[in-house]
Amino acid sequence: MGYSREIYESAEQILAERRKKAEDLAAQRKSAFYGVCPQAAEIESVLSRTAIIAARAVLSGGSAREQLTRLKAENLALQNRLKEQLNSFGYEEHYLEPEYSCKLCGDTGYIDGKMCDCMKKLLRAQAYDSLNALTPLKLSTFDSFSLEYYSNKTDGDARSPRSIMEGVYANCRRYADSFSLSSPSLIMQGATGLGKTHLSLAIANTAIQKGFGVVYCSVNNMITKLEREHFGREEGNTDRIILDCDLLILDDLGTEFRTAFSCAEIYNIVNTRLMTQKPTIISTNLSTQELQERYTDRFASRIMGEYVRVLFCGRDNRLQKLLRNQS
Which CATH number describes the domain made up of 132-326? Predict the structure, then answer.
């Protein structure tokens, strides 16, 4: 896959660290065991010598079959003696071997020249982390969301903003708690500073804790990155990551610089993820009519027909917090 060089280097570094840690721990176990069982150290030494002799026999050519058969029998006998020594001290036969995170590739990332699944998963995770690097995920949780900035005042028979937002909060929490790959897509609509980003990231936090691959990006930053990669100014595989992730969160739809490229990319992302039934959360300050005017009737129809609308109301929370802190 076309990940950037930095993503590959990051994944390879993580695997190298895992491999070194496993081998260092195995070396420590060997050192400690040889201290109480010198016979085991002698057996390991002889095993190493038989391996060297076997290699020389192969390289020398000629009739090496008899010698290799004899060395194999000697090697097997030595391994059995080592197992007996380990068992006598209460250890399993693989106690002295490195315990790699991936048993298939030994934390090298490759099996017979082909990329191991552990490497593929690590590349994907590193790509997610790279896209999410500037996201305040840890700061945006359901527990840190406050309803105190929403007014309790009612206008006639209408519900108060706080009452409405209590429902929004509860619905978002239920969505997060029951999130799965078959969850519906959401569009969060409302004015600036009403908590759309906070609650979408709170959902992301919960989904990540469940083991789902989540990508968050502001639409403006996403379009900039896609444009750089599309026209060869930057390496990356952002389009595939965005289309393939378990949950995509597109923040601030409508704030991006409008071009033919941006409109086409946004429609392609929304349409493709709907076709492949992958959930997406969009937050926007635009009304339904403004979505229709800014993009196309077809785009607005796809959103309004397939997404669940979550309407936010109230006054700008960020402004209220700022005023309260200054007073």
Answer: 3.40.50.300
